[in-house]
Design a protein that fits this description.
Blueprint (H helix, E strand, L loop, with lengths): L2 H9 L5 H12 L12 H8 L3 H13 L4 E6 L6 E7 L8 H4 L2
Helix pairs in contact: 1-2, 2-3, 2-4, 3-4
């Protein structure tokens, strides 16, 4: 778990409580030894007590704010979609993404 990320989530102004929860729960799944974080959307949604579509709305906000980065992963042999990999940038981007059209 990344306590720094959780602290950042809780102290981030302008985020809805559910968005903060999504960030904190995503950080909970981060392996502190490897830095890897790739829970499935179903697992993450279940941990937050929300639907996958609601989860994706909150993940979009977190990505726009620069609090997370998402990278789609695929099986190189079969091309099958794997769970998304999440990373946590050191410095959040300003809130300019919320105001872009």
């Amino acid at each position: 778990m990344s306590y720094e990320t959780v602290d950042r989530a809780l102290g981030c102004e302008g985020l809805l409580p559910t968005t903060k929860l999504v960030l904190a729960m995503t950080a909970k799944f981060r392996n502190t030894k490897t830095g890897k974080c790739h829970p499935s959307q179903a697992t993450l949604a279940r941990a937050c007590g929300i639907s996958v579509s609601t989860l994706n709305r909150h993940l979009r906000v977190l990505e726009q704010r620069g609090l997370i980065k998402r990278k789609r992963r695929y099986n190189v042999r079969t091309g099958a979609t794997l769970s998304t990999q999440y990373s946590f940038p050191d410095q959040p981007v300003s809130t300019r993404a919320e105001h872009e059209t």
